[in-house]
Design brief:
The protein is α+β, with helices and mostly antiparallel strands. The protein is built from 24 helices and 22 strands. Bound molecules: adenosine-5'-diphosphate.
Length: about 850
Amino acid sequence: MKSLRTANLWLAIVPMLIAVAVLIALAAASMYALSGVRAFVGAEGLWSRAEKDAMYYLVRYAHSANASDYQTYQALIAVPVGDRKAREALDRPAAAVDYEAARRGFLEGRNDAAGIDSMSAIFVHLRHRPYVANAIDIWAQADRLIERINSNAIELQTAVQGSRDPGRIEAIVAQLQSLNEQLDLLEDEFSYTLGQASRWATRLLVIFLTIPGAVMVIVAGLVYGRKFSRTLTADAVLRESQEVLSLAMRGGRMGAFVCDLATNEVWWSHELEELFGLPAGGFPGTEAAFLELVHEQDRATFKQAVEGAITTGTDYAIEFRFRRGPDTWRWMDGRGHAVYGADGRPTRLVGIGIDITEHKQAEESARQFEARFHTMADAIPQLAWIARPDGWVDWYNRRWYEYTGTTPAAVAGWGWESVHDASVLPAVLERWRASIASGEPFDMVLPLRRADGVFRTFLTRIMPLKDDAGRVLQWFGTGTDITAQQRAEETLRIADRRKDAFIATLAHELRNPLAPIRHALEILRLPGTAAAELVTMRDIIDRQVRHLTRLVDDLLEVSRITRGNVQLRTEFVSLAGPINDAIEAVQPLMKSSGHALTVELPVEPIHLVCDPTRITQVVLNLLNNAAKFTPRGGHIRLSAKREGNEAVIHVGDTGIGIPPANLSRIFEMFSQVSPPIERTHGGLGIGLALARGLVELHAGDIQVSSAGAGRGSEFTVRLPLSSTAEPTASSPCAGEKVVRCGARRRILVVDDNLDSAHSLGKLLQHMGQEVQEAHDGVDAINAADEFQPDVVMMDIGMPKLNGYDAAREIRLRAGSRALTIMAVTGWGQDEDKQRSAAAGFDGHFTKPIDATQLQAMLDRIPPGNQAVTAAT
Ligand code: ADP
């Protein structure tokens, strides 16, 4: 480094010295020129003085004729003549210049010997300079005048020594004076030219000395200034870069090392020592000491990597655990390579160690997170996948492979297209590409093929994960199978439509019986109505009320069945019983419709355990439908037989039939083939739902078949025959016999509906009972206090005080007195009955009350305040 700096210094100094030398040479030359010019100036002074003096002595000689004057003249004129000789010796081509002759000439011209060389040099070398050339020219002109003076002087001497003609002498003197005047002019011009030359030389000197000097000083200043500053900067930079390197190493949690492969001595930087938790200089400096700090399990791999790198001349990079402190293990990324000597043998190993513990921990937690994510994504029932920003899918969850039956290799990237419906795929691709381009989420309902080839509908959502700058890092996609949901929604929509149709039908069906009732009532109101007509009207009202009651019963029944609230009252019976009941009930309809009913029952009775009332209900419903949906004069067939362990009932007709599309849902609630408005037959569309519910309660099955519209229908009911059941004494299906009893009881009728209260009161009076009415709960309590009834017929929903509370209060006030309290309400569900029982009611009548049931209850209550439990 030191020799390099010295070399650099010389490189800068040598040109500078050369420049200074050149400058000095130029300055010397300028000085030389200047001194030459000065010598000429001095010579010109001598020349001028000698010439003037010579002229003086010559003119004096003209008048004195004294030979010494002439000699003095000759001695003085020798000065310009010497100078002329010098000029002539110099004023030649370069090769012919005679410096010696010139020297002699100058010496004759009495010039200072010291200035002769410079005068000659100026003459020869600068003769082409304008001033010098001009001076030489003037000098030559003067020499020619001097020659003419000399020749005039000789003429004068001749004249003085000869004729002494004053005219001649005066003429010569005049001539001499004229020549002298001319010389004066030339002298002035010569002086002026010399002055110019002197100024030029001086300027030259100034130029050569000052300007280059200044330039040199500036350049030197700049060069040395920069050199100096560079030297200073280089040192600072070196120090700085060492600090930066150290900082960078600390910041990057790294340190450096050098290992001498010959001695196994190891040098560690302070940073490396810090990483190992050692104080500065705390590392012992041997390879063995280092290996001690490497985790036992990583030592062999570490050595192997280093040796491999030394052998192959490549870099090694290995991650290993190292000990920092007694119990702390951290991770290091070691990198390095060997340095080889001139003979190719490895001499040193140099490298760095980077503490990557945090990185490793982050890597581990990222790995764990990814594992957790994948576990979770594999556990969800949805299909899931992850795609790169460009849409290339590089991961699918397990469910995807299970559902599609594909393999990772087959669906990587864009392979998922294979499980899409070809007709939908272009739209999917278009929207997916648009999302990739815009970074917007993808949302679409689309079909995906299952492994067995069946397409199911998926709600597909793909969300982008973006960085802070809004660039997409990954896409996360899920596909949720919404096939069932879609079907459920569709079913709901259908059910909703059916419900609307049902409500319209219900309204229609309820109005139908109301119309004849209303008409009959109007007729009854007319004065003078014949007794026979009264009977007809009463029968109409009775039929229609029964019809209405059946409608409402069916509705409640179907509701109970759907909620599983129907209890069968099973008995061991012969199937013929309930079937005959149904036939009997349908007879009037068959007759009025003009149908022929053919019944085919086996000779051998088919016994089974069933609720006979319910079986009658099922068969009656089928017969009713057959009669309703068969045009007048049709043929209805009913048959029952035993098939294996089943009793099989067929009800067939020659009616309008059922289109194949409707067969599957004919048993659903509110399902009717023709739209309500086109229907000519009554019905709520619940009869078959009820029949199926009842049959299924018997663990049986009901099916329909029809060859199509207009080709009749056939319903088949299958009921399991009990193999274990033994015939038991069959209890009658019908209700208990009504025993009329003429005993009179006090009955309090409570109902906020006045008509309801009146009509029930009247009926009871007709039955021979003493009746009092009350129209709300409070009224009822007061009336009971006064009237002391044997029986209270209590409505439930009433103003002021409801039936439950009123009944409780009345019971309380009655104390030990026998009192029967019956609920009379429109709420007829089982839970309603349970609730009224819990409130202390003795029995529960559902409106409208059947007169027979009412009588039956009365029969069970002995008159005279002896309470009995009456249930209906
Ligand atoms: P409803 O008779 O009150 O309409 P059902 O549940 O008993 O209700 O019957 C549902 C529908 O099934 C009927 O509206 C009718 O369209 C069709 N249906 C039932 N029985 C027959 C039959 N024997 N012939 C033709 N259609 C029938």
